[in-house]
Amino acid sequence: MNVVGKWKIAAALTVNDQFEQVWKTVSEMAADPEVDPFDLQMFDSLIIFGEDGVIKTAIKIPEDLPQEEIDAAIASGECELYAPGLMVVEKREWKEEDGKIKFKSGVEGEILGEEVDPWVEIIPLENGIEYGTFRLTRADD
């Protein structure tokens, strides 16, 4: 599967009242009054898989964010501009290995004495991919 290109979040893995993990679509999340508006902003992000092995997460720049703060964040390396109105707030590595596509989760070390593999498989789905706790679909250009 070729993952290079732009993707959008279609669903997120959440925990319900019975402490079970369940997938909720972006529209279900938006309709839930308990979901923080700041968190909803994340669901409007663009996930870009580059041919260079880098995954960029770009979010819309809030309209009320002063230009001085944007400039300061860019100058500090905290983010970078991707396109007009979009800033990259996270970068991760991805690779293809043994026919599987994986991303570097950032989790390293040991859990219960077992070494953690920082590379997590991206699962192909019928209409997209499962990337960590998100289900992604191709974004329109």
Secondary structure: number of strands: 12
Strand order of the largest sheet: 1-3-4-6-7-10-11-12
Number of helices: 3
N-to-C SSE string, H for helix and E for strand: EEHHEEHEEEEEEEE
Briefly note the structural class of the backbone: alpha+beta
Largest sheet at a glance? 8 strands, antiparallel, barrel
Shape verdict:
globular
Percent helix, as a range, is 10-25%
**Radius of gyration from CA coordinates:** 17 Å
Determine the strand fraction and express it as a percent band: over 45%
On the 0 to 100 scale, the average pLDDT is 91
Q: If you had to describe this structure to a student in words, what would you say it looks like?
A:
The strands form two sheets. The protein has an eight-stranded antiparallel beta barrel. Helices cover 16% and strands 48% of the residues. By secondary structure, the protein is an alpha+beta fold. It has helices at 26-31, 37-42, 67-76; strands at 5-15, 21-25, 46-49, 54-60, 80-83, 86-97, 100-104, 110-111, 114-115, 119-125, 128-131, 134-138. The protein has one domain. It is built from three helices and twelve strands, in the order E-E-H-H-E-E-H-E-E-E-E-E-E-E-E. The two termini are 19 Å apart. It is globular.
